[in-house]
Design brief:
Main location: membrane
GO biological process, one term: transmembrane transport
Protein name: Putrescine transport system permease protein
CATH superfamily: MetI-like
Number of domains: 1
InterPro entries: MetI-like, MetI-like_sf
Number of helices: 14
Strand order of the largest sheet: 1-2
Organism: Phenylobacterium haematophilum
CATH class: Mainly Alpha
Shape: globular
Distance between the termini: 36 Å
Length: 299
């Protein structure tokens, strides 16, 4: 019995070890870099912890850490514009995804089981190919001599210039993250009981009123889950704005990459990453509190 209890404890400890190794340790490393200063050295930051000096080296290291980089971020227009631009792109794209994803998920949930399985497979199928390849395929469609302008020319329209524009970024975000919006919505809508709609009809509701009074309120957990699944990664997106938006696009993902690899300003890049992380934690905490309240009310 004792050996079984030990194995159970080890199994319960495994997720915490995983989180500590692959989340907490990298987070602490990035947090330490964000409190450092840029230096013309290798690695390009200071101070560095010298274990050979023992406790004195640790004191010197801690004394060299400060919040100067964080104080510089709000005063630098580059970081402010990149931060606001990322929130704008992610927010607008999430709204567009909801407009397209909700009707699609609703239609999938109302289909016959055989058609539903086929539509689910079609929705998941893009994940079988590389994300980078799919973005490059969009370049082939949106570039001036691409498939879109070829099709428009066949109808006597165009050409249109979409590549290296904000519109191209929105197209890429909506295309790449549509499954993340549809699948949570479908999971909620598919479980709803049709008896509720029949009861609403018996009470005098039209189909549209029944949707807004019954279906949509019950699907709000799926709306929140899908919106978070899309909004959170899109704020830090790098590949889509870099390939579809061109060099003039400012988003936090591109800014972090530029500071790390081009400007060699690791403290600034780390500080931006920490600010981004805490920005994304806020909606997650609010959503969890809302779900906890709903759970309590359900009891």
């Amino acid at each position: 019995m004792k050996a079984r209890g030990d194995r159970t404890s080890l199994a319960a400890l495994a997720p915490f070890l995983w989180l500590g190794l692959f989340f907490l340790f990298p987070f602490l490393l990035v947090a330490k870099l964000s409190l450092s200063e840029t230096a013309l050295a290798m690695p390009p930051y200071a101070p560095r912890l010298d274990w050979s000096q023992g406790l004195a080296g640790l004191k010197t290291f801690l004394a060299g850490l400060d919040f100067e980089t964080y104080a510089r971020l709000p005063t630098d227009r580059l970081y402010v514009v990149a931060y606001l631009s990322s929130l704008k792109f992610a927010g607008v794209a999430t709204f567009i995804l909801l407009l397209f994803g909700y009707p699609l998920a609703y239609a999938m949930a109302r289909c016959t089981p055989s058609v539903r399985k086929a539509l689910l497979m079609a929705m998941i199928l893009p994940f079988w190919t590389s994300f980078l390849i799919r973005v490059y395929a969009l370049i082939g469609i949106l570039k001036p001599e691409g498939l879109l302008n070829v099709a428009l020319r066949a109808f006597g329209l165009g050409p249109v210039s979409l590549l290296n524009t904000d519109t191209a970024i929105y197209i890429g975000l909506v295309y790449a993250y549509l499954p993340f919006m549809v699948l949570p919505l479908y999971a909620v809508l598919e479980r709803q009981q049709h008896d509720l709609l029949e009861a609403a009809a018996d009470l005098g509701c039209t189909p549209l009123e029944a949707f807004w009074r019954v279906t949509f309120p019950l699907s709000l957990p799926g709306v929140a889950a899908g919106s978070l699944l899309c909004f959170i990664p899109m704020v830090g997106e790098f590949v889509i704005p870099d390939l579809l938006g061109g060099s003039s696009t400012l988003m936090l993902g591109k800014t972090i990459w530029t500071e790390f690899f081009a400007n060699r300003d690791w403290p600034a890049a780390s500080a931006v990453a920490i600010v981004l992380l805490f920005t994304l934690v806020i909606p997650i905490v609010l959503y969890q509190r809302q779900q906890a309240k709903l759970t309590e009310l359900g009891r």
